[in-house]
Design goal:
With about 325 residues, the protein is of the alpha/beta class. It is about 40% helix and about 15% strand. It is built from eleven helices and ten strands. Strands 5-2-1-3-4-9-8-7-6-10 form a ten-stranded mixed sheet. The two termini are about 30 Å apart. The model has no long low-confidence stretch (mean pLDDT about 95). It comes from Crepidotus variabilis.
Length: about 325
């Protein structure tokens, strides 16, 4: 792999979304390196050395391009490491033939798996045993104070909701298909459901997930996914660990993709009252919105935008998806 294509993931082991990206890297067979960071702020490896205030984890770099948001990350990995170059795919064809349902699979993964199912699972965490500093960090992230007793009181209702979702999955698999969308191999849809249910199943309040007797199809599918991922990870090998400084130096010294791939939509820029070259602030619309990333706007398309961001180690190109993120002029800020 060329140096400009070096892949580096910034992650921590308890992050379920880190495991989602780990699984994509394994299923596609993409060699990579990792930077292990703290589960709570501060994270100088990202905020200082790269200049990225965005606080969701993971983030992933390919060369000098740094991608934020797992939806953008996994689709970028598919685009930059395609099947045509010998990598696996997360958008395999259907077994019965026909067009690949890329948009449908992405929509299912984002708006069902991650937006409807995922938010239920954190309730099952042992919040009463979390350190005060962690609770304070997550309260700031969520924009509301974490109350362990109130969260614990919601567990029975959350368990009930999870079982309703498992019943839906059981129905989807009722014709004995191997994968959710009856594809030749597991798709992003399978990956996006699996990481959530595997996480829930690892928690004390989620052990009932995909009970073999009640939900045999869902249970078999979950085990099939887990076994395949484990085999692919073993085949790929463990990623080497980098310090924040070493990773930043690799990123800063690498090349980046041309801005013309994303382009610049002047009409969109006008709607947001920005223009090419402006210093702007980009942040999620929901959690983590109080940590905007500041940079020079160099590309703005219908699905993605790119900032040039200055960190202590140098300049990188930071990518955000358009859906779910806001942008505005960064008054009083400069690179």
């Amino acid at each position: 792999m060329a140096s400009s294509d070096t892949v580096i993931i910034y992650r921590y082991n308890a992050s379920p979304y880190s495991h989602k990206v780990d699984n994509v890297l394994a299923l596609k067979g993409i060699p990579h390196e990792q930077v292990l960071i703290a589960s709570a702020l501060p994270r100088p490896e990202i905020t200082n050395q790269l200049g990225i205030a965005y606080r969701r984890i993971p983030i992933l770099a390919v060369g000098n391009d740094v991608y934020c948001d797992t939806g953008l990350i996994v689709n970028t990995l598919e685009r930059r490491f395609p099947e045509a170059k010998g990598y696996g795919t997360i958008f395999p064809p259907r077994k019965q033939g026909g067009a690949i349902d890329t948009t449908l699979i992405n929509t299912f993964s984002k708006f069902y798996a991650e937006n409807a199912l995922f938010p239920l699972v954190p309730t099952l965490l042992p919040w009463d045993r979390m350190p005060d500093a962690f609770l304070k960090d997550r309260s700031a992230f969520a924009g509301a104070k974490m109350n362990p007793k109130a969260i614990a009181a919601r567990i029975p209702r959350v368990q009930s909701s999870l079982l309703s979702h498992i019943a839906i999955i059981e129905t989807q698999l009722s014709d004995s298909r191997e994968w959710l969308f009856d594809t030749e191999g597991p798709s992003l849809a399978d990956i996006s459901l699996h990481f959530i249910l595997a996480w829930a199943n690892s928690l004390p309040g989620g052990k009932f997930i995909c009970d073999e007797k009640t939900y045999p199809k869902a249970s078999s599918w979950l085990n099939r996914m887990s076994n395949l991922i484990k085999a692919k990870q073993s085949q790929l090998g463990k990623p080497s660990k980098l310090s924040g400084s070493d990773a930043a130096n690799k990123i800063i010294s690498s090349t980046h993709e041309g801005y013309e791939r994303v382009g610049f939509d002047d009409d969109e820029a006008q709607r947001w009252k920005v223009k090419r070259g402006d210093i702007i602030a980009v942040a999620p619309e929901d959690t983590g919105r109080d940590w905007p990333t500041i940079g020079k706007l160099v590309a703005l398309g219908s699905e993605e935008l790119i900032l040039e961001v200055q960190g202590s180690e140098g300049l990188s190109r930071v990518h955000f998806p358009r859906i779910g993120y806001t942008l505005k002029p960064a008054v009083g800020s400069k690179l």
